[in-house]
Fold this sequence. Notes:
By secondary structure, this protein is of the alpha/beta class. 37% of the residues lie in helices and 21% in strands. Strands 14, 18, 19, 20, 21, 23, 24, 25, 26 and 27 form a ten-stranded mixed β-sheet that branches. Strands 10, 11, 12, 13, 15, 16, 17 and 22 form an eight-stranded mixed β-sheet that branches. Helix 1 packs antiparallel against helix 2, helix 16 (517-533) packs parallel to helix 17 and helix 19 (643-659) crosses helix 22. Mean pLDDT is 86; it is low at 1-17, 245-252, 700-713 and 719-724.
Amino acid sequence: MVSRPRPIDPEPAPPSDRPGRYFNRELSWLAFNRRVLEEACNPAHPLLERLRFLSISGSNIDEFFMVRVAGLLGQQMQGVEYRSADGLTPGQQLAEIVKEADRLVDSQQAVWRDLTAALAGEGITVLDERAIDDELATWLAQHFREQLFPILTPQALDPAHPFPFIPNAGLSVIFDLVRQSDGEPIRELVLLPPSIPRFVRVPGEAARFITMEGVLKRFSGLLFPGYEVKAAAAFRILRDSDIELEEEAEDLVLYFRTAIKRRRRGRVIRLEMETGIGSELEQVLKGELGGAEAILTETGGFLGLGDLAMLVDTDRPDLKFTPYSPRFPERIREFGGDCFAAIRAKDIVVHHPYESFDVVLEFLKQAAADPDVIAIKQTLYRAGKQSAVVNALIAAAEAGKSVTAVVELKARFDEEQNLLWASALERAGVQVVYGFIDWKTHAKVSVVVRREGGAYRSYCHFGTGNYHPVTARIYTDLSFFTADPRIGRDAAAIFNYVTGYVEPGKLELLSISPRDLRNTLMTLIDVEIANAAAGKPAAVWAKMNSLVDPAVIEKLYEASNAGVEIDLIVRGICCLRPGVPGMSERVRVKSVVGRFLEHSRIWAFANGDVLPNDGAKVYISSADWMPRNFDRRVEFMLPILNETVHDQVLDQVMVASLIDTEQSWDLRSDGSYERVMPVEGQKDFNLHQYFMTNPSLSGRGAATAKRRKVPKLTVKARRRGGAK
């Protein structure tokens, strides 16, 4: 969409005398998506859940091309030779990306073929248009006439009819026709409207489907009477869909409203075509859709694998995960549902999705209805289309409370929805603030100010994930509630920073980026280095989505060489190279990919004793260890000081993540990932299943002590395996 090149998370290039210290960020992401695809092959998952993983891998790679690859192509077109941390130019990265992406797409199609056969064995069939019998053809023809014919609009392609605009992720079919009356050739294009479901389910007890493009090809004679079809092929495009904020933007809201419209017409990045499309039609598409610049892919399988999510909705509970209903936190129930009384008594941690996100909504709803609440402050990064959080803020404003909402317009692909929410909030009287022009407000913070006994008390919520009720059912995240006045003062200072650009003085407990979060993290690692030098136990445990920042990686290498034991749980991108003698032999990296998406950010530092221990320093955060989180986003890093919460986060969440053997992968020093296998004599352990079947974190806390010794021994056993 943007003509001028944009940097891709600028990172300093490594010194030329120290090659091979980092994995490439983009190739690491493709490796993550391959792990997602591997779950589509996992026989431990029900069949439709395997199909869901395949559709997720398809959607993931679409977004990867629309954003990451688009940025690299933009740099290459402008002759930018900026090198990534691993020393590659944009052109070199693109060459590697294309090769690996092609291999990944081939694997996706192979998995789809395997799943097609397995689904057919369970009575779920995707029919080829050439295999439609006469009885079914009669029904489909009627369906085509009544449901599709009025919607479809064929367009001739000739000098009088220029090639039409194809929307992003748009699926189309191009036809080469011959008029039967005089043999005159004509070329036609039919865009399949995105509002039409990709699959048509045909009548009968069996779940039989046919694709929309298959129906169109099969009954093209009804759309083109008097013509013979010589060739027909489906194709699909992906466009540059990132929005670059220009420094000269004066009105942020107006800028994003126009930028969203421009994004829909972004440069074509990827062109996907059916195999066997024919050289003539292929050349037409390349010429009309910028094929000289776009990355081309031919596939003999299914275009747009993300659309397979529709088949996952088939009513076959026997082929899906057993439904799981999250628990409402026991601690809140103990106080008769009074969130404020429960938080006032003691800090609370809630583990989503095992414990319901409804507790966050209830916190805000009670604040809206409570006559003693005078103010609410809330950040909104991704809130979803059906946001109970926004509705609660509107209700509070309509009840006469002072409500401030920091709405982040720069949340990628949620910009349009966030604009709509901002308008609705403003109409209700909420003070809406959009934060910094050049930074994203990524911190997830809510503050409720309540009048109590002639004074004011602040109740705070900090989340490692978004205020999004849908993703909260499938993302593993932590919600932390506290009435600690120190944290309340820090939270107020953060809001003043975002809303009024009032840079806070020394915060009491929190660290924030882009001010001091990276430095705080570095200092904590330095303490572990000093402890190792003093002969004390020294270790770092950290859980996050991505690890990219070169400065932090170099500090971890330094710590490893100093004798610090480092265990990292990095779900997605990891640019650190573990297990290299003399550089990172004490660093182990694993990735957990399973039923739920691991999303929480938790960091623990041994502090002179063997982890886990009561004196360890434990933090939760909204930030990953990436340059953008440290330098271009407002993030928080919060110490967990309450003893019970400390033990719950460290001894349950972190230990369970480290000892999981059923859905974990070890990162090797060559960049490959291998499934984790149980240490000899150790039983399989599935961390998602563990938290679905064990008492919640927000319980009284007594249950945790009974479980602590065995996981400690298991973590030590895993460490002996090490990274190879």
